[in-house]
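Continuing the batch. This is chain 6 of the set; chains 1 through 5 are on the previous pages. Same settings as before, nothing changed between runs. Recording input and output for traceability.
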Amino acid sequence: MRIQFTKMQGAGNDFVVLDETAGPLGLTAAQYRFLADRHFGVGADQILTVRPSPAPGIDFEYLIHNADGGEVEQCGNGARCFVRFVRERGLTTQDTVRVLTRSGVIELHMDADGRVTVDMGAPVFDLPQIPFDAAGLVPHTVNSWQKWPLALVESGDSAPVSIAVVSMGNPHAVQLVADVDSAPVATQGPLVERHVRFPRRVNAGFMQVVSRSQIRLRVYERGAGETLACGTGACAAVVAGIRLGLLDATVDVATRGGTLTIRWAGAAGDGWAPVTMTGPATTVFHGDITLP
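Output for chain 6:
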């Protein structure tokens, strides 16, 4: 089978985007892995699929598959590329679109400066919803919020790492580090990602606080490994930093692929305000490929 695709990137987080508005392609997990393969396929951190509106009030459906072929709930950098794709392909003329993901509906907006702002929805802190199994653990309370000790037995470290746990439609474990350049992302990242206390695995974030309005961040993504940027990871890190009393409401997040601006107002009524993320989205090239 031969298919058309578009290669895109947002702050270095790169994607293969597929148009299924005319009908499903019916790809298998192995074919998603092939597309993501940087040696034999196109190469990408995730495969994004555009499908037609599934219900009134929703413009499109948005599917995400990681490089390992598994489907996931959310991808923030991919969401920015999604709205640029549907605009450039003539699938919509709207500046703002609402799309359905596995974790719910999100709103995407093309800004006048060419960047894209995504309303990522409210963060989730309820541990069973994330999901995170905290049975038997004793949290450390900071600024009326909890950080959790996570033992990484395979790493050989005697002391557990301290993580803040939050979901941005997908699960994140955020830890503070003194310097992201020397953070043990390659060694600790896989151990956190596959830790038994995260039944759906987790994205492992390593956050360095530079000031109350700036952080540096690296993320070892679930099913993809370390990427140049992670949009939901940036949101999760800023939310964690604000709840720990370390950050203000607007924060620039410096990743290895570029800068994202995250805004979060915290509590809103009986719940939590939505998180917004602003950043770049770029089309790299169009092509077609024969799938095995």
